[in-house]
Amino acid sequence: MAPKEDMLPPGWEDLDRQMGQLFMMGFDGTSVSPQVRSLIEDYHLGSILLSAKNLKSAEEATRLVLELQTIAHDAGHLVPLLIALDQENGGVNSLYDEIYVRQFPSAMGIAATGSKALAHEVAVATAQELKAVGVNWILGPVLDVLTNGRNQPLGVRTTGDDPQEVSQYGVQYMKGYQEAGLATCGKHFPSYGNLEFLGSHTDVPIITESLEQLSLTALVPFRNAIMQGLDGMMVGGVSMSSAGMNVMHACLSDQVVDELLRKDLKFQGVVVSECLEMEALTHNIGVGGGTVMAKNAGCDVILLCRSFPVQQEAINGLKLGVENGIIGRPRIEQSLRRVLNLKSRCTSWEQALNPPGLLSLTQMQPSHTSLSTRAYNNSITVMRDKNSLLPLSNTIDAGEELLLLTPLVKPLAASGVSLSATEATHGPLDPSALDRSASVMTGESVFKELGRSLSRQRSGRVLHTSYTSNGVRPIHEDLIKRASAVIVVTADANRNLYQQAFSKHVSLICQSQYTPSGERCEKPLVVVAVSSPYDFAMDASISTYVCTYDFTETALQALVKILYGELTSTGVLPGSISRSQKIHQSRQHWLVENWNEERDSAALDALLDTARGDCAQGQRSELLGATSNSFLLRREDVDEAHFVVRNSSTQALYGFCATYFFRSTGTGVIGCLIVDPARRKLSIGHSLHSRAIRTLLQRKGLKRFQLGSRLPGIYLGIPTVSPVERKRLRQWFAELGWNTALSRPVCSVVLRNLATWTPPDGLTATLQNAKVIYDLVYGWDFARAILDHIRTNARQGVTDIYRIALGGAPNCGIIRAKRSSDDMILGSIVIYNERSSLAEHMPALRSTQPPVGGISSPVISPYADDYSTVMQGLILLAIKQIRKLNANAVVMDCVDGDGNFDCLSSMGFSMLHSFEEVNCDAATWTMMHAS
C-alpha cells in the first residue's frame, strides 16, 4: 500500500529531530568547533553553511566536509547534511585553491561573452569542483535584475539590467549546477537589484518598486527559474514600501513568501531565509521572534551564520513557538518534507562519506584551466576606442615608458573583489559583518602583478604607482609628463567617487600636453574598469574605455593580451544600459525645523561625530574640536537662526544649518551646512539651504550674503581639502545660485614644536630696522583706533572677532604695528589663549594638542610700505607672547589666502584647513529667489 502523501518517512516523529532539519548554520574556523559539533549531535542540525573563513584549501575543505558528515552519521542522522556555500565566481568564491580550483568570470563577465552555452559549461565545471570536496548545495544562481546600475552593492554578481537576459543566463547556470549533481538556490528574492540605503546598518534597505513593476522586471528571472525546476530560493532581508505592500523584512512576511512566492509564482521548493543574525533584523525584532515569524511566513530553512548563542536562541524560539501553538506542527512537517525531498536529489550517505576529493580535481584541472582562460579571453570588453589607441604596441614604441595608475583597494576575499562569501550573499546589507580573514591576495598585489605582466608583454619600462582619495598629487603629474601613455584602473568608481574624479583629472592633464615646440599633443589614455563596467559606461569623455568585470589574476592576464593585440576583444556590455540613459536622484522636500538648543544639542554633537568619522583617511576634518556650543554666538548685535532636519521619533539629526545676520554690516551668513554622510543625495542639504536663504532675506537691512563664517570660525567657506571635493562642492553651491567664480581663499595654519622654533634668518634684524613699532594692548580703552583701522581694511566677521578680543582681557589681546613717525596703525592681529571666549568658536585651536595659543585675523593697512614685513612682525611678536605661556603650538585662523601662505610657510607654518569664501549681493539673491 502506497503511503499517504502527507505522511513522513519512518523515524521522523520526534519534534527536535524535525526542527533541526529546518536550520542552516555556519561557524568560525577551519576545523570542527565544539559548537558546530553540538549543533549536529544535540540539535540535529540538518544544513551547514561554509564560507571563505572555513575553507583554506581544497584538501582541507574535503577533510572538513567529510568530518562534518561523519559526525552526523555517527550521531544517528537519518539523512546526510546539506553542505552549502557560495561560488559565484568573479569576486565571490568561498572555495579558493590556486592549484586545484579554477577561477571563472563573474556572472556579468560571462554574460559579456554573449554565450549561454559558455555559461552552462562554467556552471558545470564550478559545480563539479564543489561536488569533489563534498559540497551538495550551491547558493546560486543570482537572479537579480540590476535595474539601477549605480550604487548597488551586487554589481557584477548580476548578469545585468535586462530581465530576459538575466533569466536566460540564470537558467543555464541552474541547469549546469544540477547537471553536476548540486542542488540550487536562487537569490535574492524578490530582488536586490535596486535597493535604497537610507540609514545605518540597523536600518533595512528598501525596495520601493510596486508589485506591478517588480512583476514586469525583477520577478521575470525568478519566475522562469521556478518553471525550469529551481530547487531552493533565498528570500532577502529587505523591506518593501509601495502601494499594496508594506513589509519590514521580506523573509518574515507571508505576503512575500506564502502569497507572492508560493501562490503567485507557484514555487514548491525549499525557501531559505536571509541570515537572521543581520544587525538590522536583530535590532528591530530579535532572533527568537524573527525565527517564529520566518517560519510562519513560509520559510522552510532558517539561516544563522555564525554565533552559537544566537543559533541556540533561534532553535529555542522555534520550539517555543510550536509549544505555544503559534506555529502548527503541519507547517513544520511540510517544511521537513521539502528538505528531505531536496536531500534525496543531491546526496546520500554513500556520496557524503566518499567524496571524490583531490584525485577528481586533478583530473578536471586541464579542461577547467582551458575553460577559465577561454571564458576570460571572451569577456574582456572594449566599450570605446575613439582614437584607435589599441593595441598599445601601435601607439607607443618599445623604448617609451608606460604609466599604470591603480587605486588602493581592500583585500580580495577568497580571490574575489569584495566580500567573503557568506556576507556577500547574506548580504550586502550588513557592513558590520564583513570578514576579511580569508584574504588570498591584496588588490595592490594583483595590480603589481598587472604591472609586471604589462612590462613582460611589451619588453619595455612600466611605471606603476597607486592613487587614493587625496586625488592627483605632484608625483602623478610628474609621471604623467614623463610617460608616453597612461593606463588608469578603476574599481567600482560609482561607489568610490574619488576614482571617477581622479580619472577625469588625469584625462584633462593628458589632453593638455604640449610638444617642445608648443603644439598641443594629447597623450594616449586608457581607462580600465576592473569591477563594475558602469564607471564610465555613459561618459563619452573617456575615449578609450575597457572593462574586465573583476580583477582576478586571470582576468588581468586576459586584459594585457587585449591591450597589446595578442587577442581581439569580443566582449559586449550586457543588458540595455546605453550612453543616453541617466539615473536621476529624486528630489525630496524635507521638513526643516528651527534649532532647539535643549532638544537638539546632544543630537548635533552626535551628527558632528558622524561627519568627522566620514573624513577620508589622511585628511583632517574641519569639525575637529567643534561642539554644538561652537555655533552659538549669543551676541546682541548678531541675529542667529539655525535649522535642522531630524527624525522626530529618534531625535537624531539628519542635517544642520547655521545662519547669522550681522546687523552692523548688513551681512547674512551661512556658517555651516552639515548632512549625515549616510543620508546625502536625498535633498536634505537643498531643503536646509532653501530655508536658510528665505530666513536671511527677511532680515531688515540685508545688503549681502556670505558663504562661510569667520565667527564662528568652523567653516570659513567652501572646504578645499582636495581638488575633487572642491570641484564637487563648488558645483553644488553654484547650482544653488552662489557665484563661486568670485570666491576668495582663506585658511587656518599651525606652527608646531614651538619650544624649538627659531625665526627665519634675518627676520629679527629686518624688523628692528623697519620704521614700525609693535605693542600688545588689552581692553576697550584702545577700541576706537583699532576698530577704525579694522572697518576700513577687514572683511566681514573680522570686526566681531576684534570686539570679542577687546572685551576678553586678560585671555585675549591685540598686537598693533604702528608707524613710529605718527602712531598710525599699519597692522593688527588678535592673540588669545585656550581659556578665552573666542577659543570656543575656533575649533582649529581646540583640536590642536594643548597647551596651545591662538592668533587670528591679521589686518594690514594699505598704507604699510611693506605688507610682508608688517605681517611677519605681528606674527613674530604673537609667537613670542604665546611661547611665554609654555605653549607647544600656535594656531592662526582667518588668514586671507591671497599670497599670505608663502609668507607664513617661510616662518614654519603648515596648512590646517583651506576654504573659499563666497560673497554675493543681496539684490541678486532677492531677484533669483523671487524667480
Automatic annotation (TrEMBL):
Any GO BP annotation: peptidoglycan turnover
Keyword match Glycoprotein: yes
InterPro entries: Acyl_CoA_acyltransferase (IPR016181), GH (IPR017853), Glyco_hydro_3_C_sf (IPR036881), Glyco_hydro_3_N (IPR001764), Glyco_hydro_3_N_sf (IPR036962), GNAT_dom (IPR000182), NagZ_Beta-hexosaminidase (IPR050226)
GO terms for MF: acyltransferase activity, transferring groups other than amino-acyl groups; hydrolase activity, hydrolyzing O-glycosyl compounds
Domain Glycoside hydrolase family 3 N-terminal positions: 15-342
Pfam families: Acetyltransf_1, Glyco_hydro_3
Keyword terms: Carbohydrate metabolism, Glycoprotein, Glycosidase, Hydrolase
Highest taxon above the source species: Eukaryota
All copies of domain N-acetyltransferase, residue ranges: 635-707
Family per record: Belongs to the glycosyl hydrolase 3 family.
Xref: PANTHER family: BETA-HEXOSAMINIDASE-RELATED, PUTATIVE (AFU_ORTHOLOGUE AFUA_8G04060)-RELATED
Protein name listed in UniProt: Glycoside hydrolase family 3 N-terminal domain-containing protein
Organism: Penicillium cinerascens
